[in-house]
Amino acid sequence: MESALHHLSIYQAHKLLKEGQTTSVELTEAVLRQIEKVEGLVKAYITITPELALKQARLADEKILRHRKAGESFSPLLGIPISIKDIICTEGIRTTCASRILENFFPPYDATVVEKLKEAGAVIVGKTNLDEFAMGSSTENSAFFPTRNPWDLERVPGGSSGGSAAAVAAGECLGSLGTDTGGSVRQPAAFCGVTGLKPSYGRVSRYGLVAFASSLDQIGPITKDVTDAALLLSVIAGHDPKDSTSVDYPVPDYLKALVPEVKGVRVGVPKEYFIEGMEEGVEKAIREAIDCLEELGAEVVEISLPHTKYALPTYYLIAPAEASANLARYDGVKYGLYIPASELWEEYRLTRGNGFGPEVKRRIMLGTYALSAGYYDAYYLKAQKVRTLIKKDFDEAFEKVDVIVAPTSPTVAFKLGEKVEDPLKMYLSDVFTIPVNLAGICAISIPCGFSEGLPVGLQVMGPAFGEEKILRVAYAYEQATQWHLKRPPL
Ligand code: GLN
User: For labelling alongside 348, which of 40, 160, 294, 355 has CA 20 to 30 A away?
Assistant: First the structure.
């Protein structure tokens, strides 16, 4: 039993803790041993915090003992080893955003989601690798090193939350928090054969999340299965007075949504998501997953989301525009890298020139251009209008169907280096995930098979604040299949 502790789901580990069959220290030690064994190959972490983790685990064990003696139930996260994407602030733990400009940044406060994890008693194992400032789809844009896909070390884990997805797949933590601005939770989850949920915009507080594109960013769970995603979401969701974009809706107990039953549920299949350029093996796995849902009693309907083809260009105006504004704060004055010079403009030039990597600079330039006088109406304003049309497509679709299913990504994990020279190719990796962020709705990616030995992800999209719907369909599919139980042969 003990040797496989790191491969347990959160829910399974919680059961063992409840029954007194294991301890948080044992779980944490198992995870730390697995990190020691595979981290040299996978490189999922920027910072590992073993002492802190063991200290938190000992405290958790004391609490668990008290709860058990009193016959009380306790949070399913109490004593569970979790990792956090290194763009979410952790008090006193280095938070780099995988950027040279924040290489030595130690936040003086916790993000709200981290506060919530700590309150629930989670054990923090470390901070995971990402594309610099979450800009990318492969984790190769990390200023430090690329992460590798545990299913094939020659391939990327996806991005930008590639470290989180790889760590979960490799058993280097039991669950993780990633962020999703255009697909960064779902696409790496798909590439690594795990589950990733992008909550509706406003469902989870962004306070303490280093901003990339503020109208799109959301924090979401990356886990081994749907139950764990529901569980983590229940803990991190909710209104936060410190984030005015977080919405004051009650947080349902998402575990209750997990009934393996889809009879009569209307599932939309958008014809625009089955495009040329999609890998054959991916299309086959997705079609089979749709057939499976139909066999389970779902009503499958073809639908149309006519503005889908404009999503990618729209995103690449709005996201860089917001990024160029958000990243203006890294001027060497307040925090982060500072390179002194004899004159202020020279200081800015040196600090930003050396601190940011090439993709971040590209985004800042694109965004600054799109926002500049004379171009604002033609680019940024136009993009905002098209964004509304994309949202309308979904509004109309959700009048006819309960959820929409599609591939998470048109391909399986690609080789390291395959797309770094061609940003447009890299951007195309997110064509199926980006519309969800533009519309502010929710979606989950779950494993649905393999193509050439690599995991394929099925995306289930739902209306804004319809997390229970996507969780239910995802759970029913998961329970009818075995894909989520597959582990990479590391
Ligand atoms: N890959 C997309 C980008 O590069 C999305 C990133 C994200 O969701 N953070 O912008």
Answer: 160
Residue of 110, 324, 336 whose CA lies nearest to 236: 110
pLDDT tens for the 490 residues of the chain, in order? 444 999 999 999 999 999 999 999 999 999 999 999 999 999 999 999 999 999 999 999 999 999 999 999 999 999 999 999 999 999 999 999 999 999 999 999 999 999 999 999 999 999 999 999 999 999 999 999 999 999 999 999 999 999 999 999 999 999 999 999 999 999 999 999 999 999 999 999 999 999 999 999 999 999 999 999 999 999 999 999 999 999 999 999 999 999 999 999 999 999 999 988 899 999 999 999 999 999 999 999 999 999 999 999 999 999 999 999 999 999 998 889 999 999 999 999 999 999 999 999 999 999 999 999 899 999 999 999 999 999 999 999 999 999 999 999 999 999 999 999 998 889 999 999 999 999 999 999 999 999 999 999 999 999 999 999 999 999 999 999 999 999 999 8
The verdict on whether 214 is a catalytic residue reads no
Residue ranges per structural domain of the chain: 2-264+404-485, 309-381
Give yes or no for residue 367 CB within 6 A of ligand 1: no
Alpha carbon distance 174, 157 (integer Å): 17
- HSE-CB for 262 with a 13 A CA cutoff: 30
Contact 47, 83 (CB under 8 A): no
Say if strands 266-270 and 299-303 run parallel, antiparallel, or are unpaired. parallel
Cα(308)–Cα(288) distance, rounded to whole angstroms? 23
Q: Quote the ligand 1 centre to 126 CA distance (angstroms).
A: 22
User: Which residue from 322, 388, 130, 119 is spatially nearest to 238, judged by alpha carbons?
Assistant: 119
Instruction: Report which protein residue has its CA nearest ligand 1's atom 5.
Output: 182
Annotated catalytic residue: which of 24, 137, 142, 160?
Answer: 160
Q: Relative to the CA of 137, which ligand 1 atom is closest?
A: 1
0.85 surpassed by pTM: yes
The radius of gyration of the chain's CA atoms, rounded to the nearest angstrom, is: 21
CATH superfamily of 2-264+404-485: Amidase signature (AS) domain (3.90.1300.10)
160 in active site: yes
Could you tell me if the CB of 137 is within 6 A of ligand 1?
yes
Distance 429 CA to ligand 1 centre (A): 9
